[in-house]
Amino acid sequence: MKINNQIKAVAFAGVTIFSSLANAAENPGAKSPKQGIWRGEFVISETHIPFNFEYNAKDKEHPVLTLLNGSRRDDFKVTKLSGDSIFVKMNTYDAALVANVESDGKITGEYRSLVPGFRGSSLPFSAEYGKDYRFVEKGKEQPTKHNLSGKWDLQVLSKAKMPDNVALLKQEGNKLTGVIMSTVGDSRELEGVVQGDEFVLSHFSGPNPRVYKGKINDDGSISGVISSGIYDNTKFEGSKNEQAALPDPYKLTHLKEGYSKLDFTLPDLNGNPVSLSDDKYKGKVVIVEIVGTWCPNCTDQTAFLSPWFKANKARGVEAIAIGFEQKDDLEYAKYTLGTLKKKYGIEYDILFGGIADKKVASDKLPALNRMMAFPTTILIDRKGDVRQIHTGYTGEVTGQYFKDYVAKWNKDLDELLAEPVPATFTSLNKNSEVKGSK
């Protein structure tokens, strides 16, 4: 495949990453993708993972590629390199689509990790213009007697024992959409098709692409395989159950016996140490969010928390994001977490915790029984006591689950903010607008 060799590795604050380069002037006759709908396809061994996107270049200086997944839309800036090549950085995810526009109008390239030192982290893909289907062309659908709409108990079969997942599926004719929820978060919106006794769903919105291939068994149960980008295949089994439920996310992670507070000292993006014992946080309600820019549920949670914080910061609340990244390097984290800050307009402190590893996160936060998931969200009251720990995040695609989460979030924060500032902290906040309610 042709990949323009002007995609160079450059040094950025001591970290080697692929440059997104300034827009280069097009050579006469250089090709650009056609505007409109496209169908792409990743190939992993014998597995094909289709995805759909739109290319919009009405603003020639700022072309945009929009990944489509059901009702979800994710926009990414397209950088035009010299010749016929393009570079599409996956926003906060340190990866990109790097591709050429071929003589026949098709796009060929690869999904490439930009994390310095990562090897073998690339997936080839090709895309054709004007195709709006995902798995099956219109008119080629196969009849099916099954309707998968509803709630499903889904067991993911792994070497380690895992809690059951819950799948929420909606089938209209042959079209199938849905989401799979687990203790760590949700799959984001899946889109696919039912064909006879088989079904298939896929998703690609920036992080690794995934495909779920399954069979509908004679007893109405389902079984199949999940293929996730660069990673191994995982088997699953499921049965329809309207009472299917996940473990309580407020009880999975908790403080160890004898602890009532959280304690840490970690660097901010300028290398300055920050601790919960700093005067800034005393007498305030504090939200601590444990995240990673590589984690889609983390960015979805950040997209929720950032505007909430802006609207409520005058009420006596602070927030801290602790990022665990794909390299244990502050300069690299300054780049990745800085990108997150800019993308979502974050106005609260962002600290660097270290390498993206649950054991490392557990070691950095020893008061917790364990770090089970990114993200994990911790609410701390005005006295500095931990009052709530929530594992994972379920986004808007989960419907009522998300609405319930938001309702509880606002109720719990209102109650914490209504509590009085301890007298020992009042003087520290005399110049701050600390209120119990709006």
Automatic annotation (TrEMBL):
Top-level taxon in the UniProt lineage: Bacteria
Organism, scientific name: Dyadobacter koreensis
The cross-references to InterPro entries, in alphabetical order and at most eight, read: AhpC/TSA, Thioredoxin-like_sf, Thioredoxin_domain, Thioredoxin_ResA/DsbE_sf
Coiled-coil residue spans = none
Q: Does the keyword Signal apply?
A: yes
What are the UniProt keywords, alphabetically? Signal
Q: Which residues form the signal peptide?
A: 1-24
Query: Which CDD domains does the UniProt entry name for this protein?
Result: TlpA_like_family (cd02966)
Give the protein name, as stated in the record. Answer: Peroxiredoxin
GO MF annotations for this entry? Answer: antioxidant activity; oxidoreductase activity
The answer to whether keyword Transmembrane applies is: no
Q: Which Pfam families match?
A: AhpC-TSA (PF00578)
